[in-house]
Amino acid sequence: MKRIITISREFGSGGRTIGKGVAEKLGIPCYDHEVIEQLVERSGFAADYVKSQSEYAPNGSLFVNALNAGNFHGLSNQDKLWTMQRQIIEELGEKENCVIVGRCADYILRDRADCLKVFIHRDFQSRAERIVQVYGETEVPTEKRLKEKDKRRAAYYQFYTDQKWADLANYHIVLDSGVIGIEKCIDIIADLY
Amino acid sequence: MKRIITISREFGSGGRTIGKGVAEKLGIPCYDHEVIEQLVERSGFAADYVKSQSEYAPNGSLFVNALNAGNFHGLSNQDKLWTMQRQIIEELGEKENCVIVGRCADYILRDRADCLKVFIHRDFQSRAERIVQVYGETEVPTEKRLKEKDKRRAAYYQFYTDQKWADLANYHIVLDSGVIGIEKCIDIIADLY
């Protein structure tokens, strides 16, 4: 069984940066946007469409899609993408030791790999400051943007995993990256591996 | 401002053992049962009564008391004990650097000390095994005992702090002591201090 670190995170908490740092320190690959890229390739959908149907969706229709999906016998595009994403993650989990950021990997690999399940969070205000620093300003006010992303991520996770988002029972270690610091989070996780 | 480590924990997770281990490693005191002892002394109530009205209550009436408390102008005994407990914890938080296990110290000291807020959890089955090992069998079946303690602790915490119990947003670090191991938990927390 491969040894995988899954990193779930609140938007703006620095979870992706931490994932990359841990992977670098351990000399193993870190998968994040690579999953989206593979999804674009396999699905034949346009990259923007795939992103808009994933947890990265910039605005709105995800939850509605997810609900509608249950009302039809065929699979919605949303559901097809979920199925492909699950396959990609399962393949990663069988291929090599690695870090996987987001994408419900903690749930998908729960019985298939020796997972260290990590959750990264941070207080709202400091996430708001961080996303402006890292991603820049957009037309949507920062607070609104953050709240929407939080809602979207939680809805996506809960719909497809049937588990509550951000429930500490699902994680082996949960870190507040604002208080503990990104570097220290990397050290602790890499050391635990 | 004193530097305090507060350890909240699920019953049977080993949080108390971890608290003591951290305190020993750092050469600072660990307060746990000492708070109850002071509470007995100050309140003049019998030790068993104080325990039965606290989160350690072996059976039942806590939540009912907590609800009733709101219906009277005077303070219930439960509320008096909470007020005294809060004072004891506030005094500890002003006196010295220390570890405090349970007793809503994370909430009570939130603006009064430089707190590292820790939560320790562990899966239900392994907690059930651990409480039999540590506390021995009782007449009440282990699973029932565990579920009641969980409910009591959550109700107590939520009633007096107005915060959700076991909400990861309230903690700087959350550790699964079953997966990570008691010794490793001690190392990580002591190192973070």
From TrEMBL, chains A, B:
Q: Which UniProt keywords apply?
A: Kinase, Transferase
Q: What is the designated name of this protein?
A: Cytidylate kinase-like family protein
Origin organism is: Hominifimenecus microfluidus
GO molecular function ontology, one term from the record: kinase activity
Against Pfam families, the record matches this protein to: Cytidylate_kin2
What InterPro entries does the entry give? P-loop_NTPase
